[in-house]
Specification:
The structure holds two protein chains of two kinds.
Chain A: H1 2-16, E1 19-27, E2 33-42, E3 45-50, E4 60-63, E5 68-71, E6 73-78, H2 108-114, E7 118-123, E8 131-139, H3 146-149, E9 157-161, H4 190-219, H5 234-240, E10 245-250, H6 253-266, E11 272-275, H7 283-289, E12 292-295, H8 313-319, E13 324-326, H9 337-346, H10 352-357, H11 361-366, E14 384-387, E15 398-403, E16 406-410, H12 411-453
Parallel strand pairs in A: 1-4, 1-5, 6-7, 9-10, 10-11, 11-12, 12-13
Antiparallel strand pairs in A: 1-2, 2-3, 5-14, 7-8, 8-9, 14-15, 15-16
Chain B: H1 2-5, E1 8-9, H2 13-17, E2 24-32, E3 40-48, E4 51-56, E5 66-69, E6 74-77, E7 79-84, H3 100-107, H4 134-137, H5 145-150, E8 153-158, E9 165-168, E10 170-173, H6 179-182, E11 183-185, E12 190-192, H7 207-233, H8 245-252, E13 256-260, H9 263-276, E14 280-284, H10 292-298, E15 302-305, H11 323-331, H12 335-342, E16 346-349, H13 356-368, H14 373-379, H15 382-387, E17 405-409, E18 418-424, E19 427-429, H16 439-442
Parallel strand pairs in B: 2-5, 2-6, 7-8, 12-13, 13-14, 14-15, 15-16
Antiparallel strand pairs in B: 1-5, 2-3, 3-4, 6-17, 8-10, 9-12, 10-11, 17-18, 18-19
The chains are: A alpha/beta, B alpha/beta.
């Protein structure tokens, strides 16, 4: 009897994890479109994809007739969920700081992005300095603590920045109407930015050697004093050793080429050029270096170094063999990256699959997580988005989002929650107001009593 | 009333004639809340030379003791503020400006008027006062002390609170002829603030910058100590490690205090404490109602800030606060009750709430939030002593402990309660009747 009960409990537990989404138009991205397709989710993974899947006993069945299912969208450039400033702009090289230290899982923008079908974000340091901080890839598991957001197994990165932002010499007051200017710092030119990066990697190599010598000495039984661990240089050593990706904020063709040369000289790789609005001019060189390009669809002209840009950038780079993704760099834009992808059909004539790839499998490749996410394929994480219409249509709405097979967004539930939360808010405000009124009344009564005692109040009938 | 006038029962007339402060007291027939043990309904507390000599029913009263008739009164251990700047006159707000609104900013360092040399990174040790000792800064001249004693506080874990590495605390008694008299124990910890100068200031200008800076300092400390011990073992032929004032300061502190107010900060500082591999205390806790289980599991000593979040006094009436803010305001005062229920130990501190009226109001809100009164008293006495490992000398009414006592008529922090006597280090203070915060003074303050 007990065994039977245990068996029932076990099977229930296993089946509770199973979801079958049926009769959807599956936009697999890597394996074309499947009409009237089904996806079976088991233990957080995609267990089966096809047209004729039967549900295991106890599986939750979702009928998605007339609806569209895509892989979760991926944003290769985000600053969401960061507590405090996204820039440690005080130094030319602030590689000791780490976005992973300041993730804020309560940032409502996580939920809002989720409601737009986003499931993975590459959260970056800002672009104030030549070498910015360490970066982290997250899954948008709304409601989990910071540690629960981190994408297990995704390689960490580091932000570099070229051009106007890092060469601003910090933030002198004349640039912003603020009296609190930063003291000017190096560099002040694009040449200086390259020099800074070269200098920092030179230091990193010396540091690497120092530790190597120390470990050799120790192995020999000598007792040297260990070198000081330097949190600024350690991530750069990791870059040299291929353990950390470089994501380089860049716009102009000349600075892109200059960074490729510096990287080749110093012996490291650029994983992605970010923004890279003049990438179309040097696409072959970017492809040859093996770097990806993460750009905007049609956002440019917002400052001088981005005037020579075109919305055909992504399509041109794609045709030259670069892996291209479209990113948001914004709490707002990240909510509809699928519409940005749609623009690529218009600008450059890419196929819908190529366009969708720019917000799914391509950013996954750039982040080195394409074996886990980015398409609807057996064995990948069940990060899925259900739309009412084709996601490249402006009229499409996100209905449901799963991450690792768990539902994290549901439009119907959201509409109910809005009412509940609004009521809760109203109640709290009313309660606070009532307490305030009581306290005020009490204070008034006491004051009157004192005033009366001290004879400050006119006696009744005196006037 | 008659009893109040003639409370002193003089046994040793000679002592009185010499006009020397008495060194021996007996508080007789009082209700005694020992905190460490069970409550005594009618007992005597004997005090001599600054120590509690004995406590219990039916004690023989020595001939030289001054006797205080405690009938109708309750004796508690002196209250302890588990984190404050009390006793450091430099950070006290200007006299007269006792309200919290002005107290808080005065405690933060003002930006220097003259430009400082550019900070090149953690190596320059910015905002680092790790070596500064509260024990060297406390003085009995802090104008806040008299008012604080009058509501029953005898002791404070006082920290200099300047900068990021904000200096070493001392447990002090809130009276003495000079600063040195006040110090009970030091150093008791290093307070760490996650303060930034902001986006345009020097390093560190961001929260992540501050965290990486603190992390680097403790790595540097490990290396420093390792280098010193290797040097000591192999002096001949080994280059000597460079002396580092800042790291010496960090090395001295037996524990670190990390700020954690919101839920994500509690998570962050819990793991940071583990990473730094040092005994740690978390302070803040206003959103701890979301993290009770995690805190129980983390098993770190906690300091709960009595300065509950509330609506800004001059709030724009058209501003609608976020739901999170509203939840915090509504639920923070229930944190002590929730922690108690879960069996998590904590002590109270009053950030900037220095007036009797403020502290009374804030404690009342915790009690209204479901905190049993006995637990409130414990959080103000023995728990605070335990956080700093000093429960062998303060925090309860036990034989051999420092005679820090408060004698009240009524339950502490109730509006109609009066504090009749306060003993600090065995020295008697008879608070001039605490002026019931005049309604005029309360005007404009909610």
């Amino acid at each position: 009897m007990r065994t039977l009960l245990a068996f029932i409990a076990l099977t229930c537990a296993a089946h509770a994890e199973s979801i079958l989404i049926r009769n959807a138009t599956l936009l697999t991205v890597t394996k074309g479109t499947i009409q009237n397709g089904s996806v079976l989710i088991q233990d957080g993974k995609i267990a089966a994809v096809g047209t004729n899947l039967s549900a295991p006993a106890g599986a939750t069945i979702i009928d998605a007739s007339g609806k569209f299912l895509s892989p979760g969208l991926i944003d290769c450039h985000s600053h969401t969920a960061v507590e405090g400033s996204v820039n440690e702009g005080s130094l030319s090289d602030s590689s000791m700081v780490n976005i992973a230290d300041v993730l804020d899982p309560s940032d409502i923008n996580i939920y809002r992005a989720l409601a737009g079908g986003l499931t993975v974000s590459n959260v970056l340091h800002g672009s104030a300095n030549a070498i910015g901080g360490q970066t982290i890839v997250i899954k948008l598991r709304w409601g989990k603590p910071a540690k629960g957001l981190i994408f297990e197994g995704a390689k960490p990165g580091i932000k570099f920045a070229l051009g106007e932002n890092p060469k601003r010499q910090g933030y002198p007051s004349e640039l912003f109407s603020s009296p609190a200017a930063q003291q000017r710092r190096y560099p002040g030119t694009r040449l200086g930015v390259e020099d800074e990066i070269r200098e920092d990697f030179t230091q990193a190599k010396i540091y690497q050697t120092r530790w190597k010598l120390y470990n050799e000495d120790r192995a020999k039984g000598v007792h040297p004093i260990p070198p000081r661990r330097d949190l600024r240089l350690e991530p750069l050593v990791e870059v040299l050793e291929g353990k950390r990706y470089v994501h380089a904020h860049s716009y102009r063709a000349d600075e892109i080429l200059a960074l490729i040369r510096t990287a080749d000289d110093m012996g490291f790789k650029i994983r992605t050029f970010q923004h890279v609005l003049e990438g179309y001019k040097v696409a072959k060189e970017i492809a040859a270096h093996g770097a990806g390009a993460s750009t905007f669809s049609d956002w440019y002209g917002y400052k001088y170094e981005v005037i020579d840009a075109t919305p055909y950038n992504a399509a041109i780079m794609t045709r030259k063999g670069v892996v291209v993704s479209l990113n948001s760099d914004s709490d707002e834009l990240q909510r509809h990256l699928n519409w940005d992808a749609a623009k690529m059909v218009r600008y450059g004539g890419l196929t819908p699959d190529q366009a969708l790839a720019m917000v799914t499998i391509n950013p996954a490749k750039q982040l080195g997580i394409e074996d886990k996410v980015g398409s609807i394929e057996i064995g990948k994480s069940a990060d899925l988005v259900l739309y009412d219409k084709h996601p490249l249509s402006n009229y499409s709405k996100v209905l449901k989002v799963w991450i690792d097979g768990h539902p994290y967004f549901d439009l119907d539930q959201d509409l109910k929650d809005r009412i509940t939360l609004a009521d809760r808010k109203k109640d709290l405000i009313a309660k606070e107001k009532a307490e305030e009124d009581t306290a005020k009344k009490k204070a008034d009564t006491e004051r009157r009593a004192v005033d009366k005692k001290e004879g400050k109040l006119p006696q009744e009938g005196a006037l | 009333m008659k009893r109040l006038c003639g409370l002193f029962f003089v046994c040793a007339l000679a002592a009185m004639l010499r006009a020397e402060p008495p060194s021996s007291f007996a508080i007789r027939d009082a209700r005694v809340v020992t905190v460490s043990g069970s409550e005594l309904a009618k007992a005597t507390v004997l005090v001599k030379d600054g120590m509690i000599v004995d406590v219990g029913p039916n004690l023989a009263i020595p001939a030289d003791a001054w006797v205080i008739d405690g009938s109708g009164l309750t004796v508690y251990p002196g209250f302890i503020n588990a984190l404050s700047t009390w006793g450091i006159p430099e950070v006290a707000p200007a006299a007269g400006a006792a309200s919290r609104a002005t107290a808080a900013p005065a405690a933060t360092p003002q930006p220097a008027a003259t430009p400082q040399p550019r900070v090149r990174g953690p190596e320059d040790r910015p905002q680092n006062n790790s070596y500064e000792r509260a024990a060297d800064l406390v003085k009995p001249t802090d104008h806040r002390l008299e008012g604080i004693r009058a509501i029953g506080f005898t002791t404070s874990a006082t920290f200099p609170n300047r900068g990021i590495l904000a200096g070493q605390g001392a447990l002090i008694d809130l009276a003495g002829d000079q600063g040195a008299d006040m110090v009970v124990a030091q150093p008791i910890g290093e307070q760490i603030n996650l303060r930034t100068g902001g986006f345009r200031s020097g390093f560190p200008g961001s929260l992540m910058g501050v965290i990486s800076y603190v992390r680097q300092l403790y790595l540097d400390l490990d290396q420093y100590q390792q280098a010193k011990s290797i040097y000591a073992a192999h002096v001949s032929g080994t280059p000597r490690p460079e002396y580092d004032h800042y790291l010496e300061g960090l090395a001295e502190a037996p524990r670190i205090l990390l700020p954690a107010d919101q839920a994500q900060q509690i998570d962050r500082m819990t793991s940071f404490a583990q990473e730094l591999k040092r005994p740690a205390v978390l302070y803040g806790m206003h959103e701890a109602f979301l993290r009770i289980d995690a805190l129980k599991q983390a098993n770190l000593p906690l300091l709960v800030n009595l300065h509950w979040p509330e609506k800004a006094r001059e709030a724009d009436p058209t501003d609608v606060p976020s739901l999170r803010e509203l939840e915090m305001r509504a639920n923070a005062p229930a944190v002590p009750a929730l922690l108690t229920k879960a069996g998590v130990h904590f002590a109270f501190y009053s950030e900037g709430a220095d007036s009797a009226a403020d502290i009374r109001k804030q404690l009342k809100r915790a009690i209204d939030g479901g905190l049993p009164r006995a637990d409130a008293i414990r959080a103000l006495t023995l728990s605070a002593a335990e956080v700093y490992g000093l429960s062998d000398r303060v925090g309860s009414i036990d034989k051999g402990k420092i005679a820090n006592l408060v004698v009240t008529k009524g339950e502490p922090f109730e509006e109609k309660t009066t504090v009749e006597y306060v003993f600090v280090d065995g020295k008697l203070f008879k608070p001039s009747k605490v002026p019931p915060a005049s309604p005029a003074g309360e005007r404009g303050r909610n």
